[in-house]
Write a structure and sequence with these properties.
Structural class: alpha+beta
CATH architecture of the largest domain: Beta Barrel
CATH class of the largest domain: Mainly Beta
CATH topology of the largest domain: L,D-transpeptidase catalytic domain-like
Number of helices: 5
Bound molecules: zinc ion
Helix content: 10-25%
Low-confidence stretches: 1-55
Radius of gyration: 21 Å
Distance between the termini: 34 Å
Oligomer: single chain
Order of helices and strands: HEEHHEEEEEEEEEEEEEEEEEHEEEEEH
Strand content: 25-35%
Length: 407
């Protein structure tokens, strides 16, 4: 039986590798009007026959779990691997964010390689980061090894070069440790499909912020942010990369941090965000997760997150989950009566709330309308506010969904 499973794994890994060489790049127009090159995921196979139906099924799109993309074995109850990637199901997402996580018990700046067979001499098939990266335990063998599944955390200098590939492999069971999530108040979800960060507080979706995850290209495939479940394990603070400075950084996966959108310094010493901030809401980084600096209507931004979480994070890490934008996933359309707002005295943006830090007090509160009216002549030219992250226009959602719709 083990031999059969193993042969199956080899076939699956081969299919994944073949898929990786057949990438297609597609250009779409971003909300800011830029043409963005997007490489759709082509490397995931589906066991679930409903996903292969030519008639596309919206309910199926909301029920895809990370483990359905792998060998399909169930993981621990409520774990990342068995929870559907649907942000609207607050109870399921919260249960996932509070569920225990199995990590590799080595330093947070060290990695270990998964092996194709349960032996130190066997070929390395994936990189896994210590302390912070969760692994999906598929089988614990009685020879001291476990079969696990992860999105490989290969960085630019990796010898394995399995860039964010969902991969199965063997690791010594003695290296694994299952731990409770220390912070019971907050948890966070990053969704590559929507390019948003979702902050959960005490069981409820508390804030939604604009982000940029990694933008890979042919030369730098390692720019893709590695998906999976993680812990925010340390507060890094400010750091410099080339000529850019980034504030309020937390580490969640070795070289991958979450931090404020980077800035350069003007000649007068002032911070300049104009090269990076307009790209929030789409892929743009080298792998880190950039979060908006501008305050949402509740005053939430990356600085707020830092102030709320940095104390005690090493002792009580926060669960931090990244959803892959796999083929088959779709962004649901907002309800037609979703309220939106604009400043009827010449405002350029549409907003998600009646008051917004992007609008001067004299224009508050703003005029309400509905999502169904967003395409009316009066609202057609409004652009989304960068402070309050309103829902996307239907045409923009459709452009993203079309790239992720199965044939
Ligand atoms: Zn706004």
């Amino acid at each position: 039986m083990k031999t059969i499973i193993f042969l199956l794994l080899i076939v699956m890994v081969s299919v994944m590798l073949m898929g990786a060489t057949a990438e297609v790049t597609v250009s779409i127009i971003s909300p800011s009007g830029d043409v963005v090159e997007v490489t759709p995921e082509t490397t995931h196979a589906y066991d679930d026959e409903t996903m292969q139906d030519s008639a596309y099924n919206a309910a199926a799109a909301q029920s895809i779990t990370p483990s359905a993309l792998g060998v399909g074995l169930a993981g621990q109850e409520n774990s990342y691997w068995v929870t559907p990637m649907d942000i609207r199901d607050e109870a399921a997402v919260w249960a996932m964010l509070m569920a225990p996580i199995t990590v590799v018990d080595i330093d947070q700046k060290l990695q270990v390689q998964l092996r194709r067979e349960p032996s130190d001499d066997s070929e390395a098939v994936a990189d896994v980061t210590g302390t912070s990266q969760g692994v999906h335990v598929l089988e614990t063998l009685d020879n001291g090894w476990s079969l696990v599944e992860v999105y490989s955390s290969s960085f630019h200098d990796s010898k394995v070069k399995a860039w964010n590939q969902l991969t199965q492999g063997y690791i010594k069971t003695s290296l694994l440790k299952t731990r409770e999530v220390g912070n019971r108040q907050y948890g966070m979800v990053v969704d590559k499909l929507t390019q948003r960060l979702y902050i959960f507080k005490e069981g409820k979706l508390f804030a939604e912020l604009l982000i940029s995850t990694g933008l890979p290209n042919e030369r730098q495939p390692y720019n893709e942010t590695r998906s999976g479940e993680f812990l925010l394990v340390s507060a890094v603070g400010q750091f410099r990369s080339d000529n850019m400075l980034s504030n309020y950084a937390f580490r969640f996966n070795f070289g991958d941090l979450i931090h404020e959108v980077p800035h350069v310094l003007n000649a007068d010493g002032g911070a300049n965000y104009k090269y990076t901030e307009p790209k929030l809401g789409e892929r743009a980084s080298h792998g880190c997760i950039r979060v908006q600096r501008l305050r949402n209507p509740d005053g939430i931004n990356m600085r707020w997150i830092w102030n709320e979480l940095y104390k005690g994070i090493a002792q009580n890490p926060v669960k931090f989950v990244i959803w892959e934008d796999v083929m088959g996933r779709q962004i649901p359309l907002p309800d037609a009566d979703t309220p939106l707002y604009y400043n009827a005295n010449g405002g350029q943006n549409y907003h998600s709330a009646p008051s917004c830090y992007g609008v001067r007090d004299e224009f508050l509160p703003m005029t309400q309308f509905t999502y169904a009216q967003l395409e009316d002549s009066e609202h057609k030219s409004l652009t989304p506010c960068p402070y309050c992250a309103p829902v996307r226009r239907e045409s923009e959602i459709e452009a993203i969904n079309a790239l992720h719709r199965p044939e």
